[in-house]
Amino acid sequence: MSQLCTMIDPKTVQFLPGGIYIHIPFCKQACTYCNFHFVTSLRHKSALLGALDAEIALRAHEWRHHPIQTIYLGGGTPSMLEPKDLDNLFKTLEKHISFANVLEVTIEANPDDMSLENLQFWQNETPINRLSIGVQSFYDSHLVAMNRAHSASESRVCIERAQNAGFTNMSLDLIYGMPDCSDTEWQSNLDMAMGQLAIPHISCYALTVEPNTPLAKSINRKKNPTAWDDIAARHMDMLEAAAQTRGYDWYEVSNLSKPGHESRHNTAYWQGHPYWGLGPAAHSFDGERTRSWQVANNAQYIKSIESGILPAESELLSDSELYNELIMTGLRSKFGVDIPKTIARFGPDITRDIDTVLKRYLSSGSIVVAGDRMYLTHAGRRMADAIAAAFFDVK
Ligand code: SF4
């Protein structure tokens, strides 16, 4: 029996640029609304960082043909890492990534970790060139309700400290729609972030109640009011107005930026580029149709990596799932969805409802069409996920 061997010369193939995400699963304390994977004990920190080093070496072949353009340290709270830990992590990355292609290196930082010493180290001794700061609110009463580990004044001071240390590329996380956040307080949070502090990128998330969080348990015990959809809608209107007045581009439902300050890392996710998630609970996507995720348990992650086995499960996305994903990410972003290209790629069976659903949302003013693409309007952004779901292929 003859066997055909098809060797592809990597030099002749254009490989999509990709990103690396590294999950650091440690936090000082548990915020009430959070359902990310983290622990509040540092007991396994050095074993986990050792396993991360090993995982980088173990998986380097997966991205060897792709120019890595972005690195994102998320969590958890990566800003809790000591300078020697970060130094070691970047030394390992430098062995397995060509930094010549890297354009953006982000660290998620909480205000209480942004000491002058840490900021100077990040700025001068590491490739970090972007800070994503978990401020959430400039009111102490909100921070206490969320069980955040920092105060409002710490946020203001640390941002000015970061600016003085030379960081110009910064993002702030703010949470809106909290029942105890008045419209005046929300407006003041926006004025502080966009006006006084002139932060070029803002990520705004409506407070959602995730299962098994302290917030969900408290609601179940009826300690918190639940009807905050109206508040969230009002806060979103105020956000829209502030973004327009202050020249921010609303480039994704939860993300606004001044021109040139969009998150390259997240934009690549939304455009379907490949990414490799390292560390416990991290997710990866190969840019085609394979998605994988690692075990959300530090001890199991360490044990498995120490035995040379990736603690990951994976799935092959069907055409239908890829289509749903494209609709969701396209509609949520300012790039919209190219209608004829989508129909040509996925075929009439999967895309059969596009015209009908489009007509419905065009007439309600939630979607506009310009050229070949459809986009959400401001009214549409308020219910982005529900509109995307109306286009989904569900058989
Ligand atoms: S600091 Fe971030 S990851 Fe940690 S508990 Fe709070 S929200 Fe979650």
**Low-pLDDT regions:** 1-6
Molecular shape: globular
Helical run tally:
15
Kindly report the spatial arrangement of strands forming the biggest sheet: 7-8-6-5-4-3-2-1-9
**Strand runs, count:** 15
Ligands and ions found: iron/sulfur cluster
Could you tell me the strand content as a percent range? 15-25%
What Rg do the Cα atoms give?
22 Å
Termini gap? 41 Å
Q: Give me the secondary-structure category.
A: alpha/beta
Overall mean pLDDT score?
A: 93
- Major beta-sheet overview: 9 strands, mixed
Oligomer: single chain
Residue share in helix: 40-55%
What is the H/E string?
EHEHEHEHHEHEHHEEHEEEHEHEHHEEHH
Summarize the SSE layout with pairings:
Elements lengths: L17 E7 L20 H15 L8 E8 L7 H14 L7 E6 L6 H10 L4 E7 L3 H6 L6 H13 L5 E7 L6 H14 L4 E6 L7 H7 L8 H18 L2 E4 L2 E3 L6 H7 L4 E4 L4 E3 L4 E5 L3 H9 L5 E5 L2 H14 L4 E2 H12 L3 H10 L3 E4 L2 E4 L1 H4 L2 H8 L4
Parallel strand pairs: 1-2, 1-9, 2-3, 3-4, 4-5, 5-6
Antiparallel strand pairs: 6-8, 7-8, 10-11, 11-12, 13-15, 14-15
Helix pairs in contact: 1-2, 1-10, 6-8, 11-15
The protein binds iron/sulfur cluster (SF4).
